[in-house]
Amino acid sequence: MREELEATYGRLVERLLSARTAEGHWEGRLASSALSTATAVIAMFLADRVKHAEAVECGLQWLVDTQRVDGGWGDTGRSISNISTTSLVWAAFEIAGPRRDVESRAETWLERCAGSLEPGVLAEAITRRYGTDRTFSVPILSVLALAGKLGEDGWKRVIPLPFELAALPQRWFHRLGLPVVSYALPALIAIGQARHQRRPPVNPVARLVRNAARRRTLRLLERIQPESGGFLEAIPLTSFVVMSLVAAGEAGHPAVSRGIEFLERTRRADGSWAIDTNLATWVTTLAVNALGEDLEAAARPAIARWLLAQQGREVHPYTLAAPGAWAWTDLSGGVPDADDTPGALLALKNLTGDSAEAQEAAVRGCTWLADLQNRDGGIPTFCKGWSKQPFDRSSPDLTAHTISAWSAWLEGLPEPLRSRIAAARERGLHYLEEAQKADGSWAPLWFGNQHCANDENPVHGASRVLIGLAGRESSMVRRGLRWLVEAQNADGGWGGAKGIDSSIEETAVALHACAAHVQLAGQETITRACRWLVETTKVGVHTPATPIGFYFARLWYYEDLYPVIFATGALRAVLRGGVRGPQQ
Q: Which domains can be identified in the chain, with CATH numbers?
């Protein structure tokens, strides 16, 4: 078994190294998305149906070809059907090119899911899925209104967004209680204006205020649009902005033409679109940290230079994030966040040790994370205290990742920053204790499992926290390990929770956590997981990706490199991390 484990690890390393770009870093490949394709098709059709006829037709045909047997669509070709994506695809055919047989099957699925296609019932079902967070429910309802699927007065069912608040100073936004998360400011402006134009407020004062705010908020939208034209490099968000501006009578706004150019560039040869352009910074830092000392020395300087170049040097115009952080991509639409920043800090430590340039970057990065820390001691994604929505409240996986990065650089930090980070780390640990569930697990932000209750993924959450707490022993760690070990499936792997089908990604991250706490996890747990990985990957050559990734607004995706990276990191932890590997 030990020999097979070494062979599996060797092949995974070889595959991971061969997946680099010509510049030496990793870019990855995200799954094609029915949701992205539907929204892009609608945006391009509404912007100029003649000019974009070929792209629209190819996109619609891709959607026809990927309709599931049950009549619906999931976010990826490996996702189960859901009401959001199915509704958007249904609307895309109505707007851009009817396919009655395809639409009929979709309607049958929607009726089963929502209970009825009656506009009020359908709108309530979509709104209910997202609760108080309007970030995604309002865009879906606006698309259905554009398609005429919400009745003659469909815009009445689209909840108005207070776009006029965006005319206030940006630094006030976190105090305004906006009904969307911080990254959704472009949607707030564009969709809010479309709703206002299609169904103005009855209240004359509200109508006057919103009319007065239109030009100013449109100028803000133009100012925060990145050079690439893609807001967050995200196809759905950019598409929603484009179609909403057209619906608001602003087809000539610069954001429309630049957004369309972005959609043209990101369209794939098969007619589809992914959820985002790429996760280059994220997958590069994951790969570097998974490989550790097994990344060849000759490759390290180029990756380090590339990574250092991605660190923010100016205040970000979108979220007003201070300099010092990293986004998930090297492209202009990325936004600095608190998962890519600790990932980059750990990668720099692995790549360069304590070089002067890396040390300066670490000071900026550690400071940025400390400034972001919430009152509860946890770490949010983008903005401190903006709202109580998922990406703006503290998250266990981000907090544990940050603690790991702080710990890696702590001794080399100058005073008084070192003392500040040490204190921040203690507050982070206290937050993790408070966030731990009664059963010992944690719920992550960025990963879910479509077969688990509430789409959560406690295996991934517990694993990420335990990896971040490597080297620590406490009642919190012991409870987390006990839960994780008990969640192992009979086949030796892990799914999102006990009894959920095992996947390479979830098994690998759980194995990595167990290897980081081998005395608590036990050798038998590790041996069974290693055997499952060896057999399932066919000794490292077969790594199908699973849709466990959560994108913004809980959109599912998978990344082809995740199973390779996660399995590489897990097996290195077993083979190279001082953990005794499986015996015969």
A: 1-30+441-584 (1.50.10.20), 33-274 (1.50.10.20), 278-435 (1.50.10.20)
